[in-house]
Structures are given as structure tokens and as C-alpha cells.
């Protein structure tokens, strides 16, 4: 019998699950479809844990803690989901519902904050970093001294809704020209409006062919991402910003655009140049288990008697060099 | 004999000095003109300490620590001023120069960061706050858990140089539309360009009479200040933002404009409304000794063996309710 810490990254379409063994090796990763609405989400969480146990060759009874990352507003101390529009969940005591069938400590955390913990752990250096998620929306998680920084009211790292252009497009939040309207996948796809299987890739491809809207949107992605990184550096002053999320599936094409933008802006501003922002960014590798690993670490923090009611959750960056399966090995 | 902790706020035109007694009462405050250039600044610092001792009825030999807030770039661990354009100082080992005549621990800190420490101390609650200085330039100091938050490279709180309008005026830093170009006293006075004894007051007065440039600049001040406050809330998520600096001499007129702006923006954005930003701002009272008191506390931290080389300087908020002289009692 082994003690397994489970982490789940619950997305709008799939749940990624990960089991962390006693020696901080990743025992297994699985992926199953997400449900819609309270009951379906609860059922999918249990299904994911059972599938994970089967894949990892352990029993559900071996699970000692569960951490769940959720896209939306959560009450982390209370273990409740408050508003997760992509899951059809409005208010749900998810921790209690999971504990009713698996009686172990269960932590609920915002998915980006959980991913920040995982990204810091994977880097092996979480002294001062942010994980900037360029997904459907844009948000960051801040990790300082190895600990998740929540802030006074849990909005630390919400740089996606800093407005950077008063004449910009209206954001889903109601403001104009939020960072998210430039580099959030949802806003870019809406502005693009042409559909297609990989619309963001189309934007990058057609920008190279001179399509005016594609050029504007592609430049906007770098403009917004640069502003997001700089906002994190100029306010929280994190040493490193790790970028992840769906938009970063564009990989080096996105990173090159972003670095180019940061360099051009720095060339006009000695102050910006002194910040050396372009040296402080890195991309989360494709297929990284940061989100589910981070969720597992958030759940495991409950085992150590750490108090998730405080601003800080003590999650040690102790899984650096953990045995990560390559993306291809993730079960579909 | 008493043990006096001295704090100096060195400005472009004057030095404010404060002596803190053993029971955390303010023994005396004085104000003398600043010098220009290395030697004159060093001499003025000594003159200020001698004037303070005379005013407070103590001997310079009673001074046990000195903290100096400097407007510009400082190497706090090294006790050096790196770049203080308003003082004509480019690189100066000020701590050593002061210690050569008064052999006690001497700390050098950026003036806004020092003021943040002082403002937190005066509030009696420095759990999670920022001090936002709307002076010639715009910058903030962040205090978390009673400790000054410097960040990884000392740029935490530098929100003045977040660009919020790509078509905005060119900032002294080289970027366009920085927050500082909207609500920094220097940028506003330059854009106003009409001189006068109190140009910012003129801007507010003439805006009420419908002067188009005055209206634009006055609205810009609230626009920029609102963006600065929101950037601090959306990145570091501090519970409270205390505003100070020369621009806040406009008092309630500024605060009313800012609250109005925050309320109007919140009316368009449920997300912003949920942050309740307008309830989280307050004004540093006129004549507040926050800057010199903060400098004294930064200097005193050296006495307790606290290591200013770390990201955090432990400065306890232990002078709440200290016996502050009213502004009228400050010596000219």
C-alpha cells in the first residue's frame, strides 16, 4: 500500500488527473471528459480518480489527499466553488461532496493558482515567480518564497482585467481594452470570427500572409501579453514569469513575438530596458502537468496541518525533477 | 540619556527629519533645505540631524540609528544612492559618509518605500496595504504582514510606469501613456504649461469653469490614479491603498474625483464592482510624518539584527497612536 496525493485539473471539456507517490514521483496521469452542472462535475471527479487509480495500479483507498483546480471563483478555505461558468456550476460545496465518497482532506483552488504552484514546483525555483495563463481568459498566479500568494481578497495576479487601452474592445468584464481582450483566446477568437479548427494558428498563419485583421490580432496578442508580464514585474516584481495556457500552444511563434515586442518597447525606454523583462519570461513546456500537479500539492498541504485560511499556503517546491511522463503517454 | 532613532526624508527642496524616542513617541520634527550634489547632500543630512537634536533637546550622541529616504534608485543593502536626479547625485555611498561622522547603523531606502512603512505604522494596520505616492512621479510601496515588500529586484509597486493608453503622451521613461503621464504632478504641470504658484489647483479650479485643457487634465488625474489603485489591487491584491504625495494636497477634491471615477467604472463592470476598490482607498492626512517616520523605522530595523539583504525588512507597525505634532508645529 502506498500513500497517493491526487490532483485534478478540471477544465471546461476535460479533467486531467495526476497521482503523486510518496517519493514525489508521478505515478500516473489520466484524462477524462468533464461533466456539466453540479452532479455531473461531482461524478466526473470520482470517475477521474477511479481511472487514475486503475492507470497507476493503486487503490482509491490509497488516496490520502485530493486537490482540485477549478476554472472560476472558489472559496478555497471553505472548499466551495462559487462561480464556474464553463462548468455550469454556480455554488457548490465540492469538497464535502467528494469527501462523502472518499473520506480524505480535499482542497479546492482556482485552476490558475493551482497551476502556479505546480509550475513553481516543476521549475525547482519558486522563490519569486508568476504563472501567467493565456487561456480563454487571462490570469496569473503568484508564488513567493515557495508559497502561493493569494492576496487580501484572492485577486492577486488578476492582471487580465487591467485596462491598457481606453478605446479598446469591450471585455467580458465590462471594461474597455482589458489585457484579456488582447491576448485571451476567447476574445481573440471572437474578434477573429472565422471559426476553423485552430483559429489562433490561422491568425498567426494569415498574419504572415498580410491579412489585416490577422496582423492586428497577432500584434495585439504580443501587446497584451507584454503588458501582462510587465504588470506582474512592475507591481509584484516577480523574478520570473512562466507562460502557459491554450494560447501558448503556438509555442515559439508566440514567444518570439512576445520577446520582439518586449525588446522593441525596451529600446524606447531605458527604464523598461533596466527591468530586463525579456530575460525573465519562459514557456511552460507542452504537456506539462503543472495544473494537476499543483492541485495535488494544494491538496497535500492540508495533510501537513497548514492552514488554507491564511493568505499563504505553504507548498514546498519539492517535486523538481519528478519523473514526468511525456505528453504522448497521457491517457485519452 | 535617551536612545533616539532618526528618520530623514530627503526631498528635492527640503529634508524632513524626525526623532523617535524609546516609547515610540515622536520627540521632534524639523525641516531644512536640501543641498545639490554629493557633498551638499551629505552636509545637509548632518545639518538636519543637528537641527533635529536641538529641537528635540537631545544630543547627536543619543542617536542610535539613522534611516534616510531618498527619491530615486537606491541599493538598500549596500546603503548606496544609485541615481537621484532631483538631488544631483549619481552614485554615492551615503551610509558610509554619514557613519563617518555619526557611527551608528545607517539605512538608505527609496523614499516612497520608506513612506509606505511609515504610513502602515501610522495606520496601525499594515497587514496588506500599499502607499501610492502621487508626487512629481508616481510609485507605490507595498507592505504585507507588517513588512516592506521589495520584490525580486526592488521594483515592486512601480505601477507609475504601467502604460494604460498606447496613444497617450510620452512619459519621461520613454513609454507612451504611462499612469504617471496622467496623474504625476510633473507630467500634469508640463502638459498644463501655464505656470502659476499652484498649477494643480489652477487645473482643478479652471476645470470647474470649463477650460478644455483643464477638464482633460483633471479627468486624466482621476483616470490615472484609478488605474494605479486598480493595478495594485489586481496584481498584489492589497487590502488598502493609502494615497499621498504632492498631488494629494488637493485633498477631498482629488479623492471625490477618484471615488467618482471608480464608481462610474464599477457601474459598467460587475467584476470591478466586486473588488469594492472605492472602499479600499484613503488619503494620508496633510502634514503626516509617514515618510520620515518610515525612514526612522527602516533605520531602526538594522538595530534588531534584521537583514535588509532579504526581500523583506521586518518593521513592526508599533507606532500607531504615536504623539504626532500637527503640521503647524513643524519647524521651518
TrEMBL record, chains A, B:
InterPro entries: ATPase_NBD, ROK. Belongs to the ROK (NagC/XylR) family. This is ROK family protein. SUPFAM superfamilies: Actin-like ATPase domain (SSF53067). It holds the Pfam family ROK. It comes from Microbacterium capsulatum. PANTHER family: GLUCOKINASE, ROK (REPRESSOR, ORF, KINASE) FAMILY.
